[in-house]
Amino acid sequence: MKNLLFSSAVFVCLACFCLEFGLISTANATTNTPPATTMPDTCSAHNGSCEKCVSFPGAKCFYCETTKICAKYPAQEIFPTKYCALSEARWGVCFLNFEALIIAMGVIGGVLLIGLVTCIYCCCCRSGSNRAKMDREELEYARKKAERQVRRGRTKAERKAKNDEIRRKYGLLKNEEEDSYTELTEHV
Prior knowledge:
Elements: H1 2-20, H2 50-54, E1 61-64, E2 69-72, E3 89-90, H3 98-169
Antiparallel strand pairs: 1-2, 1-3
Helix pairs in contact: 1-3
């Protein structure tokens, strides 16, 4: 069970890593079809203003603080390091540089992954200890039930002995041998 849990956690980590860093592409790169018509580079119209650049619909533009240029995000690359240093590139929001954004996304992804692994551990691995706890409780219940039956039997025997003693005292106790049925014969 632990090997399966470890294998699934490794698989999830690898899948997240590949998706995060673009190693798995949703587009088929091996086909030789010409690319679809692309929209003209309208990002350059927002040069000089970070807020206007990063608020472009679809998050298609990034802003470089050093050169004050708004450029179309290079979709073929994971990071736009050719065009601007990561510490100076802004994408999505102006107050957070690309380097900090990558670190923050990594930390959030790590926390989510640790939370997922913890949940899997709590659900799968700890259920075995719950079964053991339930087995212990069942044994304890069976032991207490047996003790109650023994006490009930002892109390019943004491009560019967006390009642028989009272019956003997007043002559009401019948012998079990005398109590047997006898056949009546008719006298002719």
